Amino acid sequence: MTLPNFLIIGAAKAGTTSLYHYLRQHPDVYMSPVKEPRYFWSEGLAEGRLEIVSREAYERLFSDATSQRAVGEATTHYLNSPSAPDRIAADLPGVRLVVSLRNPADRAYSSYLGRLQGGEERCGVEEAMRPFSYYFQSSLYHPNLSRYFDRFARNRIKVILFDDLVANPHAVVQDLYEFLGVDPTFDVDVTTLHNRAAVPRSVVANRIVVKTGLFVHRLLPSSMRDSGITGRIQRLLLRRPEPLSPAIRRQLLEQFRDDIGKTAALVGRPLSHWLA
Question: Could you write out the three-class secondary structure of 65-115?
Fold first, then answer.
């Protein structure tokens, strides 16, 4: 039986997909073939959004791991989940945790763009970014991170900043290799930035493609579900997004100010540049 000894727990839209692909390049690192198993995200069960439910199914994700020293998976839902820290601690004693933090205003906007691209969002950006909205609440790091810092030893939690990942991905990933106990001198290829934000040229056409793809996905046998045809079609309908309005961004940062200060104190990293 092989289970992960490290997890990337979030934050969503903070470079976790790129981290997943960079880490899996290392010959001494095994990553789950399913990027987001969501197994420890109990809240997803009630929402009907879990495919990996049983312990046996979760263990099968790591059955191909052989002699790799670091075995992991990446599920961004874990960071904001009230139940995940206790479940992880119970099932994975000694686990190491990796969390990537991004300027909360930029993270919230990127999350909004992702749901717009996925056909899940119809609100305008100003309405979507209001306090107590999903995008706003899921960008408040301190209450969610506190649950992990209360439950796990600090030396088992590695906090990285999205800013650093963008500025010097090679150094960030090599530092992660060292944290995971594998050779940090491995020459990782970080030339590709994964899961970049995009928005539909036509919201209606994009929604039709997404819904059709989901319907066909449910009809196909599991062996044929990852063909990527829907994604290739959808990419033809997407374009680079406009930046978040400076006025909305300033307003958001002022609303996030208190949480940014508390998060900085919690993780021991200066974050005042987020408010600049």
Answer: CCCCCEEEEECCHHHHCCCHHHHHHHHCCCCEEEEEECCHHHHHHHHHHHH
Q: How far apart, in whole angstroms, are the C-alpha atoms of residue 269 and residue 262?
A: 11
| Cβ(78)–Cβ(40) below 8 Å | yes
Domains of the chain, each with CATH number or no CATH: 6-196+245-275 (3.40.50.300), 199-239 (no CATH)
Q: What is the reported pTM?
A: 0.85
* Residue-averaged pLDDT of the chain: 88
**Token pair 């903070």 in the structure block, residue:** 14
How many CA atoms lie within 13 Å of 218's alpha carbon, on the beta-carbon side? Answer: 5
Q: Do 22 and 166 meet the contact criterion of CB atoms below 8 Å apart?
A: no
**What average pLDDT does the segment 124-130 reach?**
94
Q: What H or E segment, with its residue span, contains residue 167?
A: helix 162-167
Q: Which residue reads 């600090």 in tokens?
A: 154
